[in-house]
Amino acid sequence: MKVSNTKFLSVALLVLATVVPATAQTPVDKEAFDITLPAGFAEFTKQVQKAESPDGTVETTNWISRAQTGEAVVVTMSKMPGKILDPEKMMNATRDSLLKSLKATVESEQALPGEKKSTMIQFRSDAAVLQSQLLVDEDRLFQVLYVGRTPEQRSAPSVTELFSSFKPAEAPKVAEAPTATAQQ
Question: Which CATH number applies to 5-183?
């Protein structure tokens, strides 16, 4: 599949919101998570956004890294104002929003084993192949997103290692008070 650089960049910019030059691999923000980036990926840049909801403030932090190959990795952590009571619903809404914004189609999706609700999704748009892991932990929703140009890039052992290495930092226990935002 041949994709123009302009079209790929527009998808990458939509996902990443910023482009950083490639540099040496560096450690990440370990107070939030731990992950092993593939060789050749740039140091993460960090962006924090806050949005008010009827239930309180939602704080979303994005860690963004890009390689000279055109590949990118984004780790997003959204901290909700209360415990996420329906993880399945939250992950489905996040997946659907991502697919719609990228005009992408799902190739595969599977629930992952473990005590925290998590799913792995492979999908594609006209300009990119993507893989995303969504994970709910108490009041936090994590998304690890890989963006590549070809299925071969996405199936590389280093991408598999990227996802298998992802570990969220221990979350403090959150009160079970239901909130509208937390249930989405």
Answer: 3.40.1000.10
The mean pLDDT of the chain is 83
**Using CA of residue 106, residue 103, residue 130, residue 8, what is the dihedral sign?**
positive
The whole-angstrom distance between residue 75's C-alpha and the CA centroid of its chain comes to 4
**φ, ψ of residue 136 in degrees (nearest 5):** -105, 130
How is residue 5 written in tokens?
A: 């650089």
| pTM score of the predicted model | 0.80
Question: 53-89 pLDDT, tens per residue?
Answer: 898 999 999 999 999 999 999 999 999 999 999 999 9
Residue range 143-153: average pLDDT? 97
Distance from C-alpha of 18 to C-alpha of 9, rounded to nearest angstrom: 10
* Cβ-count burial 99-114 (b if 16+ within 10 Å, e if not): beebebeeeeeeeeee
Q: What is the mean pLDDT of residues 145-170?
A: 96
CB burial string 151-164: b at 16+ within 10 A, e below: eebbeeeebeebbe
Q: Which residue has the higher pLDDT, 32 or 174?
A: 32
Give the amino acid at 61. T
CA distance 72 to 83: 30
Q: Which of 134, 166, 124, 148 is nearest to 73 (CA)?
A: 148
d(CA 35, CA 163): 8
